[in-house]
């Protein structure tokens, strides 16, 4: 019992620290935005280069994530870990991922907001993968999930920074949890594996860009 209380207290302290870091990043971003207006000409030049690259990148409507190679290995704890390579290129078109929901790979330059954000409609997977790169856990469900579980999980997500939640109609199981390179199925909102997964993978060691923002991204 004492160990559980200590774990809960440590998790709350880690979340509070992430909130403070996020607020500090937002303040820095505001300062940088003001400073950026001084070099608007440079920004326009860079924007032109990005536009040319984007047009080249959009030569097809859907790209296969061929640079991500490997397969899942399931651990004793039930968590599937991607063994292989997960590409991290920024792309502006849809990506065909080898698994659904994806656990990483090429993704949109803009992340989905993941500061406890709950989306009631399907979101663009390429934006969500960018959130995973920032250390977020993505909670997903399909039509087979019970409404009570969906509601309870939504309440939990809203209280947990670096998480997001959305429906994924074509996923294999009713409720799934995904972090960068890691994924598992849970039986419901009261499954103890939900808290265990959040504890381990929210800003966990798997995070390619620890401390990166989960706000000021895409909200829809």
From TrEMBL:
Query: Quick check: keyword Transmembrane helix in the entry?
Result: yes
Keywords from UniProt, A to Z, are:
Membrane, Transmembrane, Transmembrane helix
Q: Which InterPro entries match?
A: DUF3105
The residue ranges crossing the membrane are: 31-52
Classification via Pfam families: DUF3105
Top-level taxon of the source organism:
Bacteria
Protein name (Swiss-Prot/TrEMBL): DUF3105 domain-containing protein
């Amino acid at each position: 019992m004492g160990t559980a209380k200590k774990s809960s207290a440590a998790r709350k302290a880690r979340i509070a620290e992430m909130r403070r870091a996020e607020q500090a990043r937002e303040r820095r971003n505001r300062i940088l935005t003001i400073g950026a207006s001084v070099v608007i000409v440079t920004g326009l030049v860079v924007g032109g280069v990005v536009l040319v690259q984007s047009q080249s990148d959009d030569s097809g409507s859907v790209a296969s994530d061929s640079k991500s190679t490997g397969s899942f290995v399931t651990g004793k704890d039930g968590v599937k870990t991607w063994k292989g390579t997960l590409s991290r290129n920024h792309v502006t078109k849809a990506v065909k991922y080898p698994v659904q929901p994806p656990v990483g790979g090429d993704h949109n330059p803009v992340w989905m907001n993941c500061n406890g954000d709950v989306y009631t409609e399907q979101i663009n997977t390429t934006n969500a993968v960018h959130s995973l790169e920032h250390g977020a856990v993505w909670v997903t469900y399909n039509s087979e999930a019970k409404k009570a579980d969906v509601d309870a999980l939504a309440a939990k997500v809203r209280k947990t920074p670096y998480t997001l939640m959305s429906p994924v109609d074509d996923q294999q199981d009713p409720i799934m949890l995904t972090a960068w390179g890691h994924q598992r199925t849970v039986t419901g909102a009261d499954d103890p594996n939900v808290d265990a997964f959040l504890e381990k993978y929210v800003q966990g060691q798997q995070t390619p860009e620890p401390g990166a923002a989960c706000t000021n991204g895409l909200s829809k």
